[in-house]
Design a protein that fits this description.
By secondary structure, this protein is mainly alpha-helical. It contains 5 helices and no strands. The longest helix has about 40 residues. The relative contact order is 0.11.
Length: about 110
Amino acid sequence: MRTFAKIAAIVLALALLAAFAVGYWTMSLGHDALRDIATQANLCKTGDCPEGIDEASAFLGEEFGLSPRLVQWCVGVDTLAETPRGERTTGRTWWVELLYKPCGAPLTE
C-alpha cells in the first residue's frame, strides 16, 4: 500500500506541475501577443509597454465580455492554436478546445 501511495503522489505532483507549466506558457504567449497588439495599435508609451497591454486587454475584455486576465489567457490559447505543429497532431485539438473552455463560446456573425 505504501508503494501505491508513493506512486499516486508522484503522478499527482507531475499532473499539477504539468498544469502549472501549461498555464504559465499560455499566459506568457497571451502577454506577448497583447504586447504585439498594443505595439501595432501605437498604445505603447514605454519600452515594456505595460500601459498598452492593459489598454488592449481592457478593450478586448469590454468587447468580448471577459476580464483582462481572461483576455490574456484566451489570446494565449489563440496563439497556441495557430502554431503550425498544432495543425498536424490530432491530439492537439481536444486539449486546445479544453483550454478554450474558460473563454466561452466563440462569437459568430
